[in-house]
Amino acid sequence: MPKSRDEAILKAARELLAEAGVRGLTVEGVAARAGVAKTTVYRRYRSKDDLALAVLIDMVEKVAAVQDLGDTRAELVAFLNGAVKILRSTLMGRVMQGLVSELAADPNLAKAFREQVVALRIGEMRRLVAGGIARGDLRPDTDTQLLHDLLFGPVYYRLLLSGAPLDTKLAERIVEAVLPAFAGSGKPSAPRPRYRTVAGEPAPAPKLRSGTRTK
What we know:
With about 220 residues, the chain is mainly alpha-helical. It has 2 domains: about 1-45, Homeodomain-like (Arc Repressor Mutant, subunit A, Orthogonal Bundle), CATH 1.10.10.60; about 55-180, Tetracycline Repressor, domain 2. The protein contains 9 helices and no strands. Helix 1 crosses helix 4 and helix 5 packs across helix 9 (about 170-180). The longest helix is centred in the middle third of the chain and has 29 residues, at about 105-135. The chain is elongated and about 60 Å long.
C-alpha cells in the first residue's frame, strides 16, 4: 500500500475519533473518508480497536523525547508533563478512555499496546534514570519500572477513574512526592579504574592492601 494511503487512513481515523470517539469509529466510515476500499483498511487493521491503537501509537511517537536538562528532577517533570498535556488537550485522552475496556477484554490488543505504546515510555524512562544515576541524583538501584508506574499511575487514575483535573502543576507535584524515595547521594558515579598496559604485556594485578592474604 502506498504511504499516502496509510496516512489517509490514519487521518480519517483521527477525524472520526475526534467527532464520535471510539464507539463511533467504524472501518466502513474510515474507508469512506479516506477514499479507499474496506478491504484496503482490513489488510492493515483487524478491527476499529486496532485502528484506534494505531492512531494512539502515531501520536505517542510524535511526542519529542526529553532533552538533557542537566537536572533529573527537571527532566522527570518535563517527561511527565508532556504526557499530561497530550492527554488533557489532544485526542489521545479520549482514545485512551475509549480503549481501556477493550484492552482489558482483548489480550492481543493489550499485548500490542504494551509493546508499542508502553515500551516507548519505559525506554525513555530508562534513559532518564541512567542519566540520573550518573549524576548522583538517583540511587544506583533505582527500579525504572516502579518509578515509571509511580509517576504515571496518578495521571491515568485521574484520566480513567477519578475524573480529577489534569492541571498544569500536576506533573511537578507528582515528581515532588515520588522523587525523594529514589534520591541519590548527589555525587556523580565514580568511573571504574583502568589499568594501562605496555604493548604485548598483561595488565598488572591491583595492589593488595597491607595485611591482605593471598590464596
